[in-house]
Amino acid sequence: MRIECTSGDIRTVKADMVVVNLFEGTAKPGGATGAVDAAIGGAIAAAVRGGDFDGRLGESYFLRPARGVSAPRVLVVGLGKKEKFTADVARQVALPVLKAAKRMKLSTVASVVHGAGVGGISPETAARFCALGVALSSFEYDRFKEEKGHRLSRFLFVERDAKALPAVRAGVFHGVKLGEAINWGRVLVATPPADLRPDDLARAARKVGAGLDSRAAARIRVRVLGVRELTALKAGGILAVGKGSQAPPRLIAAEYRGGPAAGKWTVLVGKGVTFDTGGISLKKWEGMEKMKYDMAGAAGMLSAIRACAALGVRRNVAAVVPAVENMPSGSAYRPGDVLRMMSGKTVEILSTDAEGRLILADAMTYARRKYRPEVMVDAATLTGACVVALGSVNIGMMGNDERLVARMKSASALSGEKAWELPLHEEYLEQIKSEIGDLKNIGGPEAGTITAGYFLKEFAGDTPWVHFDIAGTAWVEKEKRGYAPGPSGAPVRLLAEFLSTPAGR
Ligand code: BES
Ligand code: MN
Ligand code: ZN
Questions:
Q1: Among residues 490, 319, 495, 492, which one has the least CA distance to residue 408?
Q2: pLDDT at position 381, please?
Q3: Where are the domains of the chain?
Q4: Which of 93, 175, 370, 469 is the one with CA 20 to 30 A from 103?
Q5: Topology of domain 2-138, per CATH?
Q6: Residues near 112 by beta carbon (within 8 Å), at least 6 away in sequence
Q7: pLDDT in tens, 163-176
Q8: CATH code, residues 180-500
Q9: Quick one: which atom of ligand 1 is closest to the CA of 448?
Q10: Neighbours of ion ligand 3 (CB under 5 A)
Q11: Nearest residue (CA) to ligand 1, atom 22
Q12: Residue 357 is among the residues annotated as catalytic for this protein
């Protein structure tokens, strides 16, 4: 699908459907919606008056006016209450639009840019979120379906004010590139676990720049370490978790170079457990199929690299991904084992199901030694406890540097991707101290998300670091907030905002 923009009048644009909007509680539609309403004889205002439609967020109203507009169909999307409007609302409303277009098998849709000028949102920002919404809503994983989903061929944003067109164009460009990068990672997360084992993930990572323009792609370099190199590096965590599987572990590093002024490295570490059975501490069967998404952190960090290249971000950014399959077998690691990690610390294994922190710890050590980063961020579907604590609304966020955490909070607010900080107070260390070694890999029933975060903190050293637990947010169970069920792409919206904002702002 092409997502484009033009300036003109939505009433006369040629498309199979035009999209306008309405804030909740608006009696008389204004702007482009008002113009369309007047052209079609006040049918929208009448629907509002009659109580058929009230502009609530997530709702939409479909009309087939006999005359007045060039397009045969009009869809009015609800933007919710004006006081509650944010740029992210403009993203969310794309989903009902794309669903309607698909249901009716349309080929072209034209839409106004939702929310430009509302509550201080610039045309550029509004267009960016609208286009991101369209790109994300067009995601469909139908590789294994005989009947493929209908695909829209063109989505056109129509801006009334010709002076605003350059800003809208820049916004659409940004939103489309970001959405495309996020969708690239969502495919990996959706892929069945037999088709995406550590080596497959490495192969996918090598193509993280594929399809981008050649100058952007040339800024990416990918290295993949195998068992030999990992052994030389004494990556005791990655090797132990990986050894129960027939598919050997990998450590993937995808580097994006942001040009001469790019400065020190930012490293993004992503949990790449291609399938988490729990290992010898086997999980129960119900829901185990979902554990294919235990590499969502890895997919997200690689997506972020793709987004940096597509958007020409002026920073040096590396994604470091430990990739393993956590399997039970005669060669698997066991509860009771004591591992010596790459950093030299020893870890007593109490559950082979707390594997994510082990591979991340080594990846973090590798990242610190190799890149001497000024910022390190990790993303991981790390704990079921995070789903209990924050549900599917917030990413669990922890860190060792107040200023970095504050920057993440502001990126979170701007991007609309929610993240909530949990404390890493020293008192929690008690729970993960081992009798036989330095640490143990689980901290008991209390504060499971925090003790997992604390475990990672022990490997972050003095590098400013933030941890995102995306266990509750990386996979959408039921359609909500503009996301269809399936992989969400978390936390790339937040990270893209962070990476494109210069430090100190
Ligand atoms: N990948 C899981 C975490 C997870 C659980 C993500 C449910 C999404 C949904 C992780 O490797 C794991 O198994 N964690 C254990 C840790 C426990 C053994 C301390 C958990 O959360 O139960
Ligand atoms: Mn596990
Ligand atoms: Zn896991």
A1: 495
A2: 99
A3: 2-138, 180-500
A4: 175
A5: Leucine Aminopeptidase, subunit E; domain 1 (3.40.220)
A6: 10, 19, 20, 21, 31, 32, 33, 157, 158, 159, 160
A7: 999 999 999 999 99
A8: 3.40.630.10
A9: 19
A10: 273, 276, 294, 356
A11: 384
A12: yes
